[in-house]
Amino acid sequence: MNCCCGNLARVRTSWMKENPRRRFLSCVNRDGGCRFFEWEDSPLCARSRVIIPWLLRRLNALERENTRLVRRNEIYKARKMKYDYGVMLEGEDNL
């Protein structure tokens, strides 16, 4: 579909609280002043407008927690390697 200035309209996704994950068309020249806008999807039901943002917040929280745990695990692995390496050297000195 072409917009009012003749450019091909681009499908985008809304991440606004009122319309989470709802797709719409807009002009690729919107920074140049074209204000073409048209919803591609039908409106979400009230329950979806509540559930989807909650699920996105939950997903973001779990991703942050996963990142924190991966970093913590890397620190523990590094400490264990240091400990194992130190123990190995002490054992070799006693031979």
Automatic annotation (TrEMBL):
Pfam families hit by this protein: Zn_ribbon_GRF (PF06839)
Species: Handroanthus impetiginosus
Annotated transmembrane regions: none
InterPro entries: Znf_GRF
Domain GRF-type: residue ranges: 3-43
Stated name of the protein: GRF-type domain-containing protein
Key words of the record: Metal-binding, Zinc, Zinc-finger
Source domain of life: Eukaryota
Signal peptide location: none
MF term (GO), any: zinc ion binding
